[in-house]
Amino acid sequence: KAGVTQTPRYLIKTRGQQVTLSCSPISGHRSVSWYQQTPGQGLQFLFEYFSETQRNKGNFPGRFSGRQFSNSRSEMNVSTLELGDSALYLCASSLDPRQNPYGYTFGSGTRLTVV
Amino acid sequence: AQKVTQAQTEISVVEKEDVTLDCVYETRDTTYYLFWYKQPPSGELVFLIRRNSFDEQNEISGRYSWNFQKSTSSFNFTITASQVVDSAVYFCALSESKGMYSGGGADGLTFGKGTHLIIQP
What we know:
heterodimer, A: mainly beta, 11 strands, 52% strand, globular, B: six-stranded mixed beta sheet, 1 helix
């Protein structure tokens, strides 16, 4: 079956702009989590969506937001981009990490560069 | 708060050598889950293993083995007879259980900083 699909693969934006990243989970998976990976901070949890509701959020400013659609696809938005937002953004899908903490499958990520 | 420490930033060995990647974790929960992921240059995190806190049995899968010791809060990963294809960044991660039982929401995975493993031919 198809894996987790993230689009676009690469993105270059200018400071102050906003960006939207997309994640299509594995068919049947209802949970989508987002992570930011930077050389300095490593992998950090952004937020998790389950059945169109944000269930939890990491320690990121309000410029980072997301949503999930009825088909479980999720989008992540970053407004007023800063140079420090340059990172690899990974999404992970799961049936329901509360019921099945084992089942996280990651996508290949979107590499965002802010110039 | 939970924390995962991978003290080895980079390890370089010659092919066919055995190599162990260390992982030490901190958590206040009695029920938690530990993971190892591999990240090749393509960027995708590839799942290797999961362990729950009640299962301290060591596991072997081909050339890979894992040693889980609650007494020292460690979950180490050993690759036997390493191969060039094993070159990647390896991450240890922790997930607490409160999402399952308390309804308070899942905090996601807490990752270590990763160990860059270089296998030289």
